[in-house]
Amino acid sequence: MKALAMIYTSMIDNFLKARTLRNLNKLSETQLDDIGVSRELLAQGIHAFPWRIQNTGLQQATAPAVLAQFKQAAANDAHQWSRAA
Fold this sequence. Notes:
Pfam families: YjiS-like
Number of domains: 1
Domain YjiS-like: 18-40
Oligomer: single chain
Number of helices: 4
InterPro entries: YjiS-like
Organism: Thiothrix eikelboomii
Strand content: under 5%
Shape: flat
Number of strands: 0
Helix content: 55-70%
Protein name: YjiS-like domain-containing protein
C-alpha cells in the first residue's frame, strides 16, 4: 500500500511539474529573466526542475505581472479540468 501511495504521489508531482513547464514556456525571455528561470533548462523538461538560473549573487525581483499570468493560467487549467470531468 505504501508503494502505491508513493507511485501516486510521484504521478501527481510529475503532472504538476508538466503543467508548470507548459505555463513557463508561454512566457517571454524578459519574463523568465525576471523570475530567474532558464529557457535552456525548460527545454530539458521536468527532469531539469526547478529550472532556476544559477545564483549569481544578485537578487531579482519577481514581476507582479508574471505572477498574475501564472495565476490566470492556473485558473484556466483548473476550469478546463473541471469542465472535462
